[in-house]
Amino acid sequence: MGERKIIEYDFGKVATERMRVNVGPQHPSTHGVLRLEVELEGEIVTEVVPHIGYLHRCFEKYAEEKTYPQVIPYIDRLDYISSMNNEWPYVMGMEKLLGIEVPERVEYIRVIFAELNRIANHQIAVATFGMDAGAFTPFLYFFRDREMILSLFERASGGRLLYNYYWIGGLAADVPPTFKEECLNIVKTVRKTNAEIDNLLIYNKIFIERAANVGILPADVAINYACSGPVLRGSGVPFDLRKSEPYSIYNRFDFNVQVGKGEVGTVGDCWDRNIVRMREMEESCKIIEQAVVQMPDEGNVQEKLPKKIKPAAGEIYCKAENPKGELGFYIVSDGTAKPYRVKCRPTSFVNLSVLPEISKGYMIADLILILGSVDIVLGEVDR
Fold first, then answer.
1. Domain encompassing residue 26
2. What is the model's pTM?
3. What pLDDT was estimated at residue 339?
4. DSSP of 277-341, one letter per residue?
């Protein structure tokens, strides 16, 4: 309980007390084991304090005791919704340390799988946000389509959630013979379902009333908090590493950076963050279509795998545009077969830090939506 306060309404004066309540860590709408300590005045949020650490696995310390390739499966378990994307900045950093230039076919497969995983991430993000707002049917539609992507991942890597597929210098295995055809079928299905979701959820009057003008994140605040991904772009800032600082072969593809425009509310609100994810799925479809056409049919994806991984003493920071934003790894080599240090710059952790700033003054029911719109995974927050 907090301070006692007299509030004057039209019907008279009412004495209220501020109250502190816990939301989570077991609450399903906290999107993982997150505890929010919330101060309320009636149903209005006056303060939010996130408490983390319930899923801490000591990833960065474990990395010091493993060889460089053995670190990759631990990286999968950070943002376990986007494991393919997680592996990429780490292996790119190692390839730069070792001076390895991977084959063209490997680059194209990496891009295609990263964009497929971006679609799969956004499908979960929008689907679970819809459930937070009380809409269950879109969740079923998205999970039905997501199975096509996971099935392809499983056939290539053997895993449905954790892949260990991007290896230093190449890939764990080549793609199935029907890879290109399956990718184009996925693109076709994604576009069809997204058109349905636009009508069913995104432009639904009730959904707009719930999500528009809620959790407004101004562009300057997003930049000052170092936000990235759809959280930053939802505030109208067109920053995407694939365009701003192109890596791999992204400079070969024609696609647009999607930003929030305040189409039905205010720029940077919950609705904008969701529409950015919806439109980014279309941009990923464009990239996949181009990559499938350009990808060489021949090539050994394990041709450049080093027999021994022992980089010279040095350090590197490598980053990539994950579905949730910028994910980076700072790797320090002391010349041995094990890294001296691996430090992760986790997207979800950084984006979560803005939650207290954009939650004050809204109702507690809106707080659940605001948290869902940030799209966090606690495996990456806590590591």
1. 4-51
2. 0.91
3. 94
4. HHHHHHHHHHHHHHHHHHS-S---TTTT--SS--PPSEEEEEEEEETTEEEEEEEEE-SSSS-SE
